Amino acid sequence: MDTNSTEDLKLIFDFLDKDNSGALDADELHCGLSILRLNLAGLQVRSIMKAADLNQDGKVDFSEFVKLCYIGATKDKIKSDDLASKLAPYDRESDGKIDVSDLRLLLGGEGEPLDEEDINDVIKELDVGSDGKIYIRDMVTRFLS
């Protein structure tokens, strides 16, 4: 894994580590999976925790998180077309863009909704145009890079 990928994973890890403990507990991991729209049941999250927690301390530290992401990316890589097609219904004008207000609805909607602070953090990470819209291709690139 290259340095940029590791740095990106560190940013994600730090974002998910809400209590700044240096490790993710099951709730923090569940929240992270929900951000990716992977709405898993508690049993599934515990199963992932058990597999990722290599030193069996009940938490996932950064090195374990990197391994989890690498294995997940190799086993089941999300295709950009799949993500773009899931975002397409929110492209109301069929111009390849999603309005920030629609993104807020998407992120705060079904499954494990994000709170307002998390939604704002996600939006800050994306390049919002002067028209208040985000290009779907930019979202796909950002989320899959």
Automatic annotation (TrEMBL):
The keyword Metal-binding applies. It is found in: Cytoplasm, Cytoskeleton. It comes from the Eukaryota. Its main location: cytoplasm. GO terms for cellular component: myosin II complex. PANTHER family: CALMODULIN LIKE 3, MYOSIN LIGHT CHAIN 1, 3. Plays a fundamental role in microtubule organizing center structure and function. Component of the infraciliary lattice (ICL) and the ciliary basal bodies. This is Calmodulin. It comes from Stentor coeruleus.
